[in-house]
Amino acid sequence: MLLIFMSIQLVVQVSETTLAPPKNIHVNGGLLTWTPATEETQVNYTVQYRSFDDKVWKNVPACVHSSFNSCNFTEAESTNGCMTLRVQAERHGLTSRPVEACSKHGDSCTPEVSLSARPGSLTVYVNISPSLVQDHGGHAKHRVYFGKEGESLERNYQDGASSVSIHDLEQGQRYCIKVQYLLYTDITGTASCIQCEVIPESEKTKPTEVIVAVVAVFSMAILIPVIAYILIFHRKKIKLWLQPPYNIPDHFFDIPRPSHQLSYSSNEDCNIIMIADVREK
Ligand SMILES: *[C@@H]1O[C@H](CO)[C@@H](O)[C@H](O)[C@H]1NC(C)=O
Ligand SMILES: *[C@@H]1O[C@H](CO)[C@@H](O)[C@H](O)[C@H]1NC(C)=O
C-alpha cells in the first residue's frame, strides 16, 4: 500500500518537473511555427540553431523566451547560412525537451523527397538544391535516416547523391524516413519531415498452387510419351478399335412371314426374294 502511494507520488512529481515539448514544428521559408503541447498559458519558447560546422546549439536572438508560437529566423539565416533549428518550451523555470524542426517543402536548406516502395526495398529520390551543388559540387549529398514506424530514425542511415535504395526491408511493414543535406561529412539545414510507406508484399505462390503445378507437369511428362508410343506402334489396333462395329440391320432378320399362304411350290426361293424386294420400296 505504502509502495503504491509512493509510486503515485513519484509519477505526480515527474509530471510536475517535466514540461511537454511543442508539436508540429515546421519550417516554411524563413518562418518557424509550432503548436503548444498543452492548453496552459504562460508558456514561453526558445528557438536554437546550429549551422553545419557548429557543434553547439545557440539561441536565435529574436526568439528567446518568446510567448509567440512562431519565430522569424530570416536574419539569423542570412548571417549563418543553412541552420538546423529546435524549440523548447519554458514555464516557471522548467524547460521541456528540445524538439527539432522539419520542413515539408524542399528549398536551399532542405531536400525535396519522394518515395517509391517495392517488395523488400524502398527508394528515396532527392532533389538536391542547384545552389548547393553550385557551391559545393560533389560534396553536396544527402543522408537518408530510416527505420520501422515508431522506432528511432537516428540509428540507421544511408548517404547518396541523387537517390538511395534501402534493401532487405520487412515486407508488409511500414517504414519511415527523413532526409537531411550532407556537406562533406556534416549534416546541415533542416531535415525533411518524416514520410512513411508500407513495403508491399511480393506475389508469393501458395504451397497448394505449387503442388498443383508440379502434379500437372508430372502428369504431362508421363502422358505425352505414352500417347506418342500408342500412336506410333499401335496404329493398326487403334484403327480397328475406331472402326464402327459391323451391325447387321435388325430388319435384315425381320423377314415378315407372308400373311397369305404361299403354296410351297417348287419355286419357293423365288417367292422370298420377291417379298424382300417389296419391303425396300
Ligand atoms: C521575417 O523578417 C524579415 C526581416 O527580418 C522580413 O523581411 C520578412 O518579411 C519576415 N517574414 C515573415 C514571414 O514575417
Ligand atoms: C516569458 O518571458 C517573459 C519575458 O519575455 C517573462 O517576463 C515571463 O515571465 C516569461 N513567462 C514564463 C511563464 O516563463
TrEMBL record:
Keywords: Membrane, Signal, Transmembrane, Transmembrane helix. GO terms for cellular component: plasma membrane. It comes from the Eukaryota. The keyword Ribosomal protein does not apply. CDD domains: FN3. Residues 111-198 form the Interferon/interleukin receptor domain. The keyword tRNA processing does not apply. The chain crosses the membrane at residues 210-232. Residues 1-16 form the signal peptide. Residues 2-96 form the Fibronectin type-III domain. One of its GO terms (molecular function) is cytokine receptor activity. It holds the Pfam family Tissue_fac. This is Fibronectin type-III domain-containing protein. The lineage of its organism: Eukaryota, Metazoa, Chordata, Craniata, Vertebrata.
